[in-house]
Each structure stands twice: as C-alpha cells, then as structure tokens.
Design goal:
This protein is mainly alpha-helical. It contains four helices and five strands, in the order αββαβαββα. It has two domains: 70 residues; 116 residues, no CATH class. Strands 3-5-4 form a three-stranded antiparallel sheet. Strands 1-2 form a two-stranded antiparallel sheet. α2 packs antiparallel against α4. Keywords: Membrane, Transmembrane, Transmembrane helix.
C-alpha cells in the first residue's frame, strides 16, 4: 500500500509539472503571437504611409508637369495674370521680339556695341544721349500705353484711380510693365546727362 501511494503521488507530481510546463509554453506562444501581430501592424502602418505619400507626390508631380507642358509655350503670357485687368485679357496677343545691341566692354573698360555678323548696323540703345537713341527707345515704348474707361480704372486701381486721368488723351492711361521700366530708364538718362539730355519721353502717369 505504501509503495502504491508513493507511485500515485509521483504520478500526480509529474502530471502537475507537465501541466505547468504546458501553461508556460502556451503563455510564451501567446506573447510571441501578440508580438508578431504588433510587428505586422506597425509594418502595415509604415507601408501604408509610404504608399500614400508616394501616390501624393506622384499626383503632384503629374499635375505640375501638366501645368508646364500643356499650358502653352508662353505660359501665363498667353492668357494674362489673375491680377491683370479683366476686360483686357481677351485682347492679349503674344508678339515675339528679339532685343539686341547690348553693350560689350574691352579689357580696358571701353564700351562698344558689337557689329552684326552680316555687317548690317544694329539699332542703338546705349551710349551718349542722342536723338537716334531716343527714337529707338520711343519705338520700344510705342503701343504699350492704352486708355481705360472710368469704370475700368476704378476696378483696376480703386479709390485712387483719378490720379491716372490724362486730359489730353481723354482717358485713364495705363501701361505694361515693360513700358514702365523703359520709362524709368529714360528718366535715369535725363538725370545722368542733364546738360546733354535730348527730348526723351517718360510718362509718369502709368499705372502701378
């Protein structure tokens, strides 16, 4: 009887040990499964983020490419800027011009205008003040000033539109950006050569 009881006790101890071991194994497996699930979840989140940003940047790149390549050769010059006078936008036409006769300088600082390869004379825009230079600049000015009605002037310039009124022309005078820049150039020319200055026109009533 004593031996039988000892054997039963040993079996119970072994069974209990196996049960504890199985529980430990199950617990470790559960922890491993949870860790693997968390890793997979983090991986999916990271992959989703990279995928979303890739799609976003690809879409943005395609949009910018389309804006550049399908807008036209001259870009916004063909349709005008949003800030420009609305009633005049449909009249905008692009005219391509070559501007040449820029000065060059020798090693000693002497300024000169390079001759054309075919030997023909260039238009003169720089140098000592002369009627020829004034005439050439006036030709660049020509056609870049235009008149606005009172309604158009008020829409373009706001309450201060009245200061652009030109009685002789009978309207409100506006000009393109280039014309205003040329006007500033002419004014500077008069300032530098007060005594020799010829009759260069620089309208001061151009729109801002």
């Amino acid at each position: 009887m004593v031996q039988l009881n000892e054997r039963n006790s040993s079996c119970e101890t072994l069974h209990k040990g196996d049960s504890d071991l199985n529980e430990s194994v199950d617990f470790l497996l559960q922890l491993s499964t949870q860790a693997a699930w968390k890793r997979e979840k983090r991986f999916r989140l990271v992959a989703s983020f990279y995928f979303a940003t890739t799609v976003l940047f690809a879409t943005l790149s395609a949009y910018l490419y389309a804006q550049v390549h399908f807008q036209g050769r001259f870009g916004s010059f063909q349709s005008g800027y949003r800030t420009e006078l609305e009633p005049a936008k449909h009249l905008i036409e692009v005219e391509e011009k070559w501007f040449e006769a820029s000065p060059a300088f020798l090693d000693d600082g002497f300024e000169y205008i390079p001759e054309r390869e075919d030997g023909t004379q260039r238009l003169k825009y720089v140098g000592e003040p002369s009627k020829e230079i004034d005439h050439n600049w006036e030709q660049l000015h020509w056609g870049r000033f235009f008149l606005l009605s009172e309604e158009e002037a008020r829409a373009a310039w706001g309450p201060d539109y009245t200061k652009y009124w030109a009685p002789r022309e009978g309207g409100y005078v506006a000009a393109t950006t280039y014309a205003r820049r040329f006007g500033r150039r002419s004014t500077r020319s008069k300032t530098l050569y007060m005594e020799q200055s010829t009759e260069t026109i620089a309208l001061s009533i151009c729109g801002k």
